[in-house]
Amino acid sequence: MHPVSHTASDADGGGPLSRLALGPTGERARLGLLLVSFALLLVVGLALPHAAAPDLGPRGWAPGTLLPVTLSPALVTAAMWTAYVLGAVGVLLAVLGRGTELPRSFVAALAVGAALTAPFGSGDHVSYAAYGRILALGDNPWLVSPVTWRGGSDPVVSAVEAPWTEEPSVYGPFATIVQGLTSLGGGDNLRQTVWLWQLVVIASWLAVRWCLRRVLPGREGRIDALWTANPLVFSVGVLGAHVDLLATALAVGAVWAAHRYAGLGGAALAGTLAALAISSKFTYAVVLLALVVAFPARRLARSAVLLAAAAVVAGGLHLWAGPHVYDQLGRSARAVSLATPWRWVFETLGGDLDARRTVSGLAALLAVGFALCLWRVVRPAHAGLGATALTGVAVLTGAYALAAPYSLPWYDVVVWATLPAVVAGVADLVLLLRLWVMSMAYTPGRVLGMTPGVEDVTMTARTSVAPVALLVAWVWLVTSAVRGGSRRRPAGPPRDSAPRR
Fold this sequence. Notes:
Elements: E1 5-6, H1 24-46, H2 73-96, E2 100-101, H3 104-116, H4 124-136, H5 173-186, H6 190-215, H7 220-228, H8 231-239, H9 243-260, H10 264-278, H11 286-294, H12 300-321, H13 327-333, H14 342-348, H15 353-377, H16 385-403, H17 413-418, H18 426-441, H19 452-483
Antiparallel strand pairs: 1-2
Helix pairs in contact: 1-2, 1-3, 1-8, 2-18, 4-5, 4-6, 5-6, 6-7, 6-9, 9-10, 9-16, 10-12, 11-16, 14-15, 15-16, 15-19, 18-19
């Protein structure tokens, strides 16, 4: 690997953590931690099916298992936890330091490594394949549950794992169309279908990096430190093959389009990409709000075109999909994760439907409060539209991830895609604690394949340790905001404020 290069602009001059920049020894230690973390994660993905990775059946023309070794549930859990600890420390050192720009060869190696693995950390990718298969063969994945479709005998759809066998799709029409296209390419073979979906996810991960490097010139090191070389994001997002990567790439692409093209055409393109993000996962609607706020007040026409394009594209997709697209969304919105402090509130209130409604209402209020706190403790790195919009997305999605009653580690992917736009500060630390805690809590991630001993240990981490740690993150954010945030004028010159054509 070629030596990494420091980018002078990556030092957040005047930022609250800039005085803690690492020396050469600290930087070497950081890179060593990251390399070990990535290696452990790739070993987990390259091994035979195990407690974190479902069996995808015959490989067909897709990559097969490269490491013909069987990892026990305990070994898989230990490897993932070790990788997450080392990776979190590596990211922490990057936040405290200046960040380094990765050589292209290293980024390419990570992408190739991801393409050779089998997804792990959940069984969601099997559900994606099933919903795409149902759509590709002419049925409605928002109405039909996998266990009932064609008598449960289909070679792809029948592989869906508990607890999702009876659940129709909760994903938006655009994501489901992409899943349908991968199903057409993969045919009757589950491994082939999943591998094509993995390529979509890897391309989305690379696209986010490409867009960020153009929206945030001079911050390549921080982009790579928080996004590209973040083992936690790489594991839960890329190696987990989650749809959140596709939605994140579309959201960041919308910001890039508005930043790159100053006219109404840029606003239309941004609105289109934002609509596709929303039509993948509804929570990504925040990108529209962030862009409207970031547009200059005198450019009302741009905001109007942005919203009109988003309405036309998203509306057309939803009309095509039918009225049942988000039937499952209301149910999932009332769910309460075991790993959040809300579980205590839910159980204290009786654990019934009224308790779920109360928790949902309180969480919505807390999310607003967290957004105000984050807005107080962050500041954009540049004064231009791109950095301002990305900062807005980081604040809104970060507040949602922290406050949501039902939350999983891959919900944080969009947060870390947009954090490079802000000056290093306490928000990085709070959100790193949140991502690390949730990644540890949802290891190995499936409800199948664990021994009783491993299940006891992981459930203790999920139900007892994680809620306390997340409560610490809540208190840390609020007290930091109350003591006085760092929000001042943007750091550095307004590099991206001039129109780009």
